[in-house]
Structure formats: C-alpha cells, structure tokens
Specification:
This protein has 573 residues and is an alpha/beta fold. 43% of the residues lie in helices and 12% in strands. The protein has 23 helices and 14 strands. Strand 2, helix 10 and strand 3 form a beta-alpha-beta unit. The longest helix has 31 residues. 35% of the residues are buried.
Length: 573
Amino acid sequence: MTQKLTLQQLESFLWQTADILRGNMDASEYKDYIFGMMFLKRLSDSFEEEQEKVVQHYVSMGKSQAQAKDLATDEDEYDKTFFVPERARWGRLKDLKHDIGAELNKATESIEEANPSLGGVLQSIDFNIKNKLSDKKLQDLLRHFSTYRLRNEDFESPDLLGSAYEYLIKMFADSAGKKGGEFYTPSEVVQLLVALLKPHAGIKVYDPTVGSGGMLVTARNYLIKHGENATNLSLYGQEMNLNTWAICKMNMFLHGVFNADIRQGDTLGDPKHVQQGELIVYDRVIANPPFSLKKWGKDQADNDPYGRFPYGTPPKDAGDLSFIQHMIASVNAEGMMGVVVPHGVLFRGASEKEIRKGILEDDLLEAVVGLPSSLFYGTGIPAALLIINKAKPAERKGKVLFINGELEYQEGKNQNKLRPEDIEKIVDTFDSFVESKRYSKVVTLDEIRDNDYNLNIRRYADTSPPPEQFDVKAILQGGIPVSEVEDDYIQETLQGMDVSCVFERQDSDYYRFKDSIETKEQICDQLTTQDPKVVAQFERWWDKYKVSLHELDAEVKGAEDVMWGYLKELGYE
C-alpha cells in the first residue's frame, strides 16, 4: 500500500460500521461488536506482520521458505505481539459463510487460550446471537473490515489506531447520553487532570475506576508529548463492568500498550491490586469515580481489612469519599493523586465533614479546582478536581489553592468544553500557586478551620462581579459617574481602554455621551474594540443613565405643551 490511512478515513470507516448493525439491536450494543471486530482484525494483521518478519529472519539464516514457515508456527517466536491461532486469522474469517457467529466465538476462544493476558476480553462479546446478528449481517461486517489492512506501516501516524478507537469511544458516549459517563470522561478534563499531576518516566500510575482507560492512555501520551520514554511507565487499573473492562484492555493494546495491568472487579468491595494482604501503592493515582454512588458497601467498609478508611466511612448513599480514601491509601509517600468530584463532597456535613477534616489536618490537600457546568455526560452539574499530595513542597504546607474556572469554557449545544487556553490557565495557576482576582486564592488551613472545614470554592475564590452601582443623581439628571467608570471591576472589563472615544466630560464627577452619538446602536461605531463585553458595558450605561428622569420630565412637559396647543386650536381652554 502506498497510500497511508489517515485518522479521518479511519474514523469515518469505523462509524459507518454502525449502519451495518442497525436493525435488531439497541444502539448501546453496537460498540461491543464494532470494538470486537476491529480488535480481531488488528490482532490478525499485527500477527501476520510479525510472522512475515520471522519467516524472513529464518530465510536470511539459510533456511528454505518451507522450513522458515514451519518454524514461524511456534508461539514462542512472538514476544512483540499476540499469537493468533490459524482458525482466528482474518484470511480464514473473512470467507466464512455459514454459522458465522459460532465460528467467530470459537476464534476468540482460541486467541484467549493462546494468550492468557487476554483472558475474558473477547469472550465477553457473543457474536452468536441469531436474532441480532444474522449470517448476512456478520458477512457484511467481515467484508467491511476487510477494506483496510491494519498494520503499523499502513498508518499515517504511529498512534492512529488508538486515536480512532478513542474517537469511537467518544462517539458512543455521545450517543449513550447519561450512560456514556460510565465509561468515558471528556478528554479535555482528562488532559487537565494529567497535566496537573505531571507523570514522568519510571513511575507507576493507577486508576481505580478505569472505565475505557482514557486516563491511563492520556498519562502515556503526556510522556510522549514531553519527549520522555512512554514504554517506561507502568499502568494499572480496575473496572467493575465486564464489557467496559474488555473495552479498556482493547484500548491498551490498540495504543501499543502491552504491559498494562487492568483487572476486573469492584474496587471498593474487592480491590485486586494487593500484595501480601496490603494495597499496592503508586506514584500517581487518577480517577473519575461515579458521582454519589448509592449502596457502595458501607457495612463492609466499616470493617475494611486494608485500613483504607482512617477518617471514617461516608454515608451509604454517597460513596464519593470512600473512593477518595481508597485512592489516598493507594498513593505512596512521595506520590500525588487527582480525582473528579461533585461539589457536594466539598461542603456536605456529618461524617463527610469529619473525613474532610482528617484529610485537611493531615495536610494532604494541595488544590481544589472548580470546573464549568455541563462538561460531563448525563449531568449538568459542575464538578471539581481535588489534588492531593503526600509530599507537598515546604512553601505550600498548611495551605490550599482554590481555583475557580467555572466561567472559562466554550459553550456547546449539549455539552460545554474546556478550551486549550482554559486548561493552560488552570495548570499555570496551580504550578505557580498564585492568587488572581476572582479566579484563585491561596487559603491557610486556619481559615478553612474557621469555616468549619467547608471547601465551597466560591467561599474563597468568588467569580461573582461586585454589586452594580447606581448613582441617584445621574439617574435623576443624566451623566455617567467617573467613579463607576474607574471602578476596578469595570476597568477589567474595559481592559483599561480610553473612554474618550465615547464620552466627554460633563464636569469633574460625571461623563456624558458625545453629542455625535444619538442612538445606542451608534456606540459601536465609536469604540476602538468590538469586544462583546466592552460593547455590552457601554450599552448598559446608555440604558441606565442616558435617559435620566430629568430628561423624561422635560419630555413629558414638552408633550403636554403640544397636547394643550392642539386643544386650544379645538376651542378648549
């Protein structure tokens, strides 16, 4: 192939697969079959690529073609990819005509038998459901996936397949609505969290609610972006939902990650990453746990064998702080963690307040970051990020940085989105640990104690504008108060612009609009900027002060004089 496959082509190709599946199954089921078929094709193509190299290696050593092919059937020859048994290779699958579902199931079973690390991944997908997947439909799927060869050399960029897979996961999350949040966190939120935690080569990263694996993949990509060796990064995760776990395992493989330790099960009730009866600890722990999970296992947690809940257990109908404490227990003495939480975690009382108090008094909390509303699938509520650091720098001890990013976003039709500049602003503020008016505040532990351990972000970093000023004299007689124009908040809005393009001095205390501006619409023509915030401020002044009560009185008097003139002409006195 001379023409390299582009991301746009691959995304379009994968999304077309949904058209083939339409009919007898719910759209939420599409992803299992599309992911499964794509995974089968990629496994087979990667194996064939390696098989050709093995054959070529033995031919170059003097073996005949037949001898080399025979030697290439040995499973031990394949340490850089998964071994694919003959019955599961695409050359055989693509020509199946009868009982295709059963044959595909046998193929996936044979792959898992040959590759224990894939155990349960493909067998979680049942292709042999006749009322949903007829032989005709499966034939169409096999024919469709035969369109492109999926070898590394066929791709325009190295991580093309992984990027396309991420796209597909996002599209399914979009179409799944609220349920999409169970397996996918918007990529911008993940990028922000990873950028705050700054993973580097040689460390271990763990996600206890790993979903489809986006956070771990983003941590790996962060290293690549910063010129570090991404293969020198150990990735771990646990996921409760079997199908989502399988998607995560496939996601790792399609991103070229073969050593990720992803396990299936309930992280709170049965953590899988344990050693000699204790939790394994990591350099970075990152997660977006389910918000306010009900029936999360409080009774069992009260007698937790791993000692994960030193600050107490949260209520049985809100598991947020149980996940947070599991994460804290999973961070090593030099490590950090970042977690997405609903705002209730920041201020709810009773046992949750006591847990916050314990975390704060142990000086683990480094930052609280408020996010805009409607970023996540299925909920319009705003969320926050908690950054916990077991090795806070000396200058940050006894302090917590509050960042309020609720107003910094791009508005979308169904969901809002963080822009690159919004992410950069939050990361820069966290890195420098500085205060910024109506955006960030460094707060001492003493002040938080005085506020009864309430972490409500607006209490410390309030984005609300100050109350609007009203000058009674200006409302009665006209004019724009100089003190209002020179107010700090107004000057931020105007970006320090020279107002003489619109105003002229009425006296030492008041401006007035230039005589040449006769209507509100003419203000724009005089301004040196068309920034909507600036335009809106001048229009607000026009509405508030231009037509004063004094002028209204004069207009009413004028109207009365005209009316009496007409009445006199008609003979009325």
